[in-house]
Every structure is written in C-alpha cells, then in structure tokens.
Amino acid sequence: MTAATPVSPVPVAPAGLTRRAKAFVELAGIRVPRQGIELHREAWVEHSIPAAEIDRAEAFQDRWGGLALPPAPFYEGGPRILGADVPEGSAAEGWWFPAGDCRVSMAYGFMIGPGGEFGVYCSRWAPLHASTDGWVESLALADHARRWAKTITRVTGTAVDFLDLDGLEPVTEVVGLADTWWRGKDSLIAVYRGEAVCMDAPGCLEAHVYGGLDEWGLHGG
Fold first, then answer.
1. Would 188 disulfide with which of 159, 166, 207, 210, CB 3.0-4.6 Å?
2. Which residue from 142, 189, 149, 196 is spatially nearest to 170, judged by alpha carbons?
3. Distance between CA 68 and CA 111 in Å, rounded?
C-alpha cells in the first residue's frame, strides 16, 4: 500500500470562472482530501448504474471534489464540501448524483441534474443554476456584494413577486434557472426560488437587495 498523495489546502480554481469567482475560490476556499469515484465503479455498475453516469460523477469530482467554500447566504449555507456520490435515477426519468453533504440537517439535498444543473431535490427537482460554475459564481457575487453594498434588504414570501426588475439586466455568469441575479444602476438583486419550488412552499421565496453600489460594487471582476 502506498501513501496517499498529500492534498494542498489551497485550492486552484477550475478554468472558466470569472476573475471574481476565481479569487473567491482561491482566497476563501480550502481543499480537503476527496474520495475517488473510480474506487466504486465496479460496485455501481453491478447495481445497473450506467457507465456514462459514473463518468459524469467522476468528472464533477475531478473539477470540484473536496472544495469547501464559505457558507451560502441562503439554503442553510449550502453544501459543506463539494463532492459526488452514487448516481440515482433511471433512463426514463434521468439521473442525478449528490453534489455534497448539507451543512445542517435539511429536508432537501444538493444534486447535480441530468443536464449538469446544480440544484436541490425534495418533493420535486429544482435546478438552481445551469451548472456548478453558476452556483460558485453566485457565491462569489454574494460575497462581493456584501462587502460593497451600503444597504442589504431581505425580501421574503410573496413580496418577492412584487420586486420591480424592469430595466435590470440579468447577471449571466450565474447561469440562473430557479435562482437569478439582476443588476441595476446602483444595485444587485439575488432572487432565490429553488427552496420554494423543491418543497412546494411559496413562503420560502427570498430575495436579497444589495443597494448603494458603485461601479466596482456592481461589476468588480
């Protein structure tokens, strides 16, 4: 038996992120030892999990596995450490695999969907972002906005539907699906719909309005 290769606690951000997200990962994140998916391939194949789905989980693990980031501003802080686990699903419904353990005990779990979406699953599937990159970009943007905003307003429940988003532009790098970010002339607005969708609970809607931002606060990175 050979000793495991030491893992540096300082992460290297995957290619393709914005400068803001890259700095967030490398300055605020840590990397911990991760479990290799390949160790489980034979057992998973024996349980009729398609090789292509194991490959997807392995690719996720290679890109994100072992990365621990600061708590998300919603979803009870988000995953504790990003990491894939056994895929579940069917050819008819599609396949998902876990994206990482929750920080606290919750009614839903973080999953990677059939198309690579990052989302939450409870009574139903709610894809938050079109990719895990989008989730990380949203964390980096929230961290940035908190540092530069003069005001932060929390909007909950049905009041979220009455937010005036006319004239605001979507923040495209977060590749939002259920969750979206919007940029105005001096504000950023994060709209979190995923928890309400996955638990069929409109009262769980939430938005954060970061106001009083200058040009750096709006775009920095």
1. 210
2. 189
3. 16
Dihedral sign for Cα atoms in the order 191, 197, 203, 204? negative
SS3 for the chain, per residue? Answer: CCCCCCCCCCCCCCCCCCHHHHHHHHHHCEECCCCCHHHHHHHHHHCCCCHHHHHHHHHHHHHHCCEECCCCCCHHHCEEEECCCCCEEECCCEEEEEEEEECCCCCCEEEECCCCCEEEECCCEEEEECCHHHHHHHHHHHHHHHHHCCEEEEEEHHHHHHCCCCCCEECHHHCECCCEEEECCCCEEEEECHHHHHCCCHHHCEEEEEECCCHHHHHCC
- Rounded to whole angstroms, the Cα distance separating 165 from 209 reads 11
* pLDDT at residue 196, as a whole number: 96
- Give the mean model confidence (pLDDT) for residues 197-219: 96
d(CA 14, CA 22): 8
Compute the chain's Rg from CA coordinates: 18
Q: How far apart are CA 215 and CA 221, in angstroms?
A: 11
Pairing of strands 109-112, 118-121: antiparallel
Whole-number pLDDT of residue 6: 64
The residues with which 192 forms a beta bridge, in sequence order, are 206
- Given the DSSP bridges, would you call strands 67-68 and 30-31 parallel, antiparallel or unpaired? antiparallel
Tell me the whole-structure pTM to 2 decimals: 0.94
